[in-house]
Each structure stands twice: as structure tokens, then as C-alpha cells.
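Revision sheet: C-alpha cells.
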Amino acid sequence: MRIGIVGASSYPACELIRLLSGHPGGLSLEVITSRTADGTRISDVSPNLRGYCDLELEPTGLETLRGRVDTVVLSVPHRVAQEHAPSLLDAGFQVVDFSADFRLHDADTYEAWYGVEHIAREFLPRAVYGLPERYRDAIRDAQLVANPGCYPTSAILGGLPLIADGLIEPDSLIIDAKTGISGASRTPSDPAHFVSRHENITAYNIGKHRHTPEIEQELGAVTDADVTVSFTPHLMPMARGILSTMYGALRSRMSTDELLERYRVRYKDEGFVQVLDADRPAETKAVLGSNNVHIGAEVDARVGRVVVTCAIDNLGKGAAGAVVQNLNLMAGLDEASGLAFPGMMP
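Predicted:
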């Protein structure tokens, strides 16, 4: 599979290039583009790539890609992806989209939460939500894959057994999520400034974060009940990683061992999902730089609640790692190809 990346200078795209540079075969990065392309080498944008990928950024456009790639990864902001995807799909390319433009099934919901018009509504039914742990078979045959958001990846994988197995009240799920500042993109902003983040933790978009309907859509897909979540994200003084701590009201009494067994059964065939032992909550450092998901689960018997921790790397399983996992499936390769390595500690 010959791959092109549109918007290749973003943090997720540079992480994708890093992962592809070590891929053992079957995926070949051929073209990288940027709207500000001026012949700059990607290794000058992201110096860790020097000697591994020194491709030049080229102008974005169909003619740049035509005849040179089979699959295009869009690493552009929401709303911009809608401008690119239709023409790429009509030209016969497979598309994997980093943005939120094709994740939500309902265009009205998208417009309500993102505040912009959806100009490619007719393509929504063709999009497959790119979470292999849920939609593996559909991804293999997809022409358009909507890569999940980073927060939703941790929240969905952490909360799925609770909802699918009917363990908690479906309107009781509280998600307290914390992320590294790389999730705020490469574009400079005051919240991402060093003096704003150093020794500082900040909650933001309380009750109105755009990932909320994505989480509710995917957790709601595994039950007949209406799922509503209370989702609060936080910016942390670290570069990368997500830890989602989830709380839910148990429907009936159960022990921590019984809860962990439900998780182990659910994820027994998922190579990237590790269910931790009791009294071992997930931690971001353990999954740093990887495509791995660590989940810890405990029952707080005193108050009748479950507490689940789920750690991922926001640029790994939360972004670029998931793209490689999806590309592997689309190319008919081993799903774990180029991704089977542990996180970096210390």
C-alpha cells in the first residue's frame, strides 16, 4: 500500500511518519504534503526523523497524489477534511481521516457540537469508525475510515465492558480525563505556552467538549439504553499521554475480581489491550510512544461504584498508532505489524 499524508507537519502526522519508518513491510510512505509546502524536508520539521524519513513537503492537491499513492491519510483540522475527502474518494483513493468530520453518524449532531456546517453529509454512511477493537471486519473493506479521537479511544475502551455487560447505570458514567499538551496541536496558543502549563493542571470545556457525542455514540452502540456521560478533560504539564478515570454506579454488588474477569473476557483476543491486576491502576508512562492500552478496574464497595483507569498515548493509540493499525487491516497485513513494542519507561 502506497501512502500519502496530507497535512504532514502536524504532531499526529509526524508520529505516523515515525511509525511508518519502522514498519517491516507492506506500507510505504511515498508522498507528504502541506498547504505551506516550500520544499522543506520533514526531518527539518521533526528532527527525530532525520535519517529515517527525509521526504520533502509538497503542495497539497490531487495531482500531487494521483498515480503515486493508493491511500491518503488526512491530518488536517475538522471542516478542512470535508473539503478534501470527497474528491479523493471520487478519484478512487482510500482515505483515513484524523479529524472528527466523519466520526459522528448524524450530521446535525456534528454541526451542533462543532459549530460548522457539514458539507459532505452524503459520505457519512460510507465512513467506518476506525476502532479495530469494535469494527475490525468493516475496516478491512472500508474506503473511508474515521480515525477515533484520542479521548474517546480511552473512554470507549475503558467503559465498553461496563455498558455492554450492563454493569452500571447507563446515565451514571463520569469520565475525568487528563492529557499531555501535544493534544493541543503544534499551533502556538496561550494554554499551551510553557508558563501556562508548567506546574499547572487545568480543566477545560466542562460539559461541552466536542468528544462527548462521539463517546456517547460508540458506547450507546453496545446497548439498547440511552447512554449519557459527564466528560471533563484536563491539560497536564506533560508532553503526551492520556489517563481517563471513569466512575459508574453499579447495578448490583460485585467484587473487584469479578469486575476484572469481565474485562479480561472482553479483551482476551485484543493484543494491544492489557487488563491490569487488582490494585494496579493504569499509568501514562507505561504506554508512552506505543499503541498499547492499559486498563485498571476496581470496585469501591462502600459507595457501590466502579472506578476504571485507562491509559493510552494520545499520539500513539489515540492517533498515529491507530492509523497504522487501520492501514494494516486495509492492506491485508497483520494488524500488529510495526506496532508490537512496549511503551518507554522511565
